[in-house]
């Protein structure tokens, strides 16, 4: 009797524990199945939230990226312009060195000048120089390039000057054939060409001869190269010889000139 009573008491005491364990086991099974069912959705939600966070962070950075990009682009443009300016200065220095090496010791240079304008037509062959009266430049000053004679100044203002090319009809130069020592007057034809006129009929001038300034006339120093004789014939009246001249200077390409002292 006592033994049965003891067993009954133990069952009564352990019953809640057994019930709890059973419920817990069932809950765990439910939790496991529920988790397994929703696990893909959980991973997807984590993926979406991570990328959304990254996207929001990137969007916040866009204004700063745009600003940095614009700053870098501006720096790049400035650097490109700087390199262009340096290259241009180097080329200009090389051209000026050639000009100074070309000039004879007796034809002293006054100053160098850049060509800042041109007026080439049937009636006029002119250039505008970047120097003027404030630089000490005056009228009737001979100008040369590394190729040879370019022309002379004809008018000056405070900051700039106007010069005639030897191809202009109004720019006459006393010239000398270097080989035969014959004299003539160089005249422009207004169309980028030049001719040597009033050559004596007995002159020993020939195609290929070199033409230089004679030093006569009070403007151009003697010995400045002009060009090569390319043709020789009598004038229309048969009184003199005329010669076509191929100038050493390519007038369409010159960028700088040197202004010389006048012939004394």
Assign the CATH architecture of the domain at 173-250. Answer: Beta Barrel
* Alpha plus pi helix count: 1
The span between the termini is 158 Å
Give the tally of β-strands: 12
Calculate Rg over CA atoms. 48 Å
Q: Can you give the mean pLDDT?
A: 77
Low-confidence stretches: none
Written account of the structure:
The protein has a domain at 173-250: Thrombin, subunit H (Beta Barrel). It has one helix at 2-102, and strands at residues 109-120, 125-129, 142-144, 149-156, 161-165, 173-177, 183-188, 194-199, 210-213, 225-234, 241-247, 256-260. The chain is of the alpha+beta class and 264 residues long. The chain has one helix and twelve strands. The chain has a six-stranded antiparallel beta barrel with strand order 1-2-5-4-3-12. The protein has a six-stranded antiparallel barrel with strand order 6-7-8-11-10-9. It is elongated, with a radius of gyration of 48 Å.
Quick synopsis:
With about 260 residues, this protein is α+β, with helices and mostly antiparallel strands.
